[in-house]
Amino acid sequence: MAVLLGVVTACADDGGGDGGDGAGGAGGAGGAGAAGAADLGARGKHAPAGSGGAASGSHVHAGEPASGPAQLLPDVASAAGIDMRHERGAAGDKHLFETMGSGAALSDLDGDGRVDLVLLQSGSLAPEQFDADQLPARGHRAGATNRLYLNRGGLRFDERTAGSGLDRAGTFMGLAVGDVDADGDRDLWLAAYGDDLALRNDGAARFEDVSVPSGLADRRWNIGGAFLDADLDGDLDLYVVGYLDVPLSGNPICGPAPDQRTYCHVDSWAGLDDRLLLNDGGGRFVDGSAAASLPGTGGKGLAVVGGDFDDDGDTDLFVANDSSPNMLLRNEGDGRFVQVGRMSSVDLNGDGRTEACMGADFGDLDGDLDLDLYVVNFEQETNTLYRNDGRGFFTDVSTSSGAGVPSTRVLGFGTLFADLDVDGDLDIYVANGHIDDNIGEISPGSRYAQVDHLYLNDGRGRFALAPAELSPSLSQPRVGRGVVTGDLDGDGDDDLVVTNNGQRPWVLRNDLATGNRITLRLAGPDGRADAEGARVLVTLGERTFMREVRVGGSYLCSRDTEVVLGLGAADVAEQVQIRWPGGAVSTHGPLQAGRRYSITFGGEQVSEQALAPPSR
To answer: pTM for the whole thing?
Structure first.
């Protein structure tokens, strides 16, 4: 998140008065094509063009114009009852934590089968509201608390924050969701500049603070984290991403002139080590960081994403670091990790340089059944797409894939892969926004509020920007931070929530998805709600594609764990094979399109229900 001064092509003004510097956003919102880009997926297993793809004429693909003026990712926040505005707590002193937040989570928290929403606050802080340790005290001004929205169906949410345990104020950053105690409901962990929170769910979306008895109390500046079964013992462990050692007092003054103060570069502070906290199965976590080679790394991390990049049956971790080398942690399957970032060529970009890395995600972008990696960066740096070469090595294909060059005009934070048009390949969404609210005065070509980017996949790992007309988030600038996916309306596709610093979130209903699909809800072992890290192989005729139950990813956010399988024009998935955490394999099929399947751990029991009709 280096403070660079760049030139960004201006876009139209937001017009909504929802924040930013009012000067509009970064350019590149519409239709920059990737025609002629090198084929990322030369080794891919896609069927020939025209076979097994999306229904004819029903999708917007890379390089194609929008099908009309209708928005296919409309913002439905107001109609859905999502009314929170993020408080960033800025008071002119340029404390870095003001510009970094905040996160969101989509998950079924009350057990009714519908995806609920948590939005975090960063608070509005005065100096007297900090304690002797120079960290935020609890008890911030009324109204600046986190929010809990419970899904009541039909894309309507009720705010149920009061009395939930989430009605806490603080300088919160990111969060992780997982069934820590294996009682069938999903618990929460919130990272903060100050007091982290571990919240145990009673099954009805009411949460008890168990930070101290669980061993998860921490007062460092942790930015986020992810739950995963690191040692394959059946319970969820926690990877914590530490950011910077930033005391409140002595905040340095940075900027080109006394009257043009900016947030300081991360080199002004020491980085914090990440931590791996192992679940002992009895409700407590113990520090396993040494076995993961984490002490002394001080990487200034901003995101962690898990995935089995080497296909050996356990969850590996990638950590995106801010202006220092990234980490790729290869899981040995027993709670030990080996750092292989340099050997695998993901510690630096293809030019051998560190980048100001924010969000990241793993996914098979080119259809060759291994996990590729995408990392978003500061303006004037390309977002970096690392192609997995299948032998433990990655190649930077940012330029040739089309997913790099347009990003130099914006500053990316959150990013996620999702098959938004359910044609069987993964598209890329990026939330963009600058860190300095006065960047337009300092660098006239740059803008604080920026438009988001959606890169549409042509099926072979080549990308082009979606037309701006598809969504207000692609045409109306805001100060983007996190992005998270989940099926908000039950129709079997991924909708999106995008958090914006100091502003209201985007809640984007997915109307791109007009093809066929099925979804999978995979349960974990011993009553655990989810099978984080499970791998799914789907066969459609001569084509096979792969998905995983996601671990971490994006920036500060936690997405829903349901797996969306886009079938395109196909009516059935002939075979679905699941490799469960621990190595067991179950095979299912044929599975009919238009259904939601819930499968117990190991694949012994399968239940199904019809997907809801589209809510549009």
So the answer is: 0.88
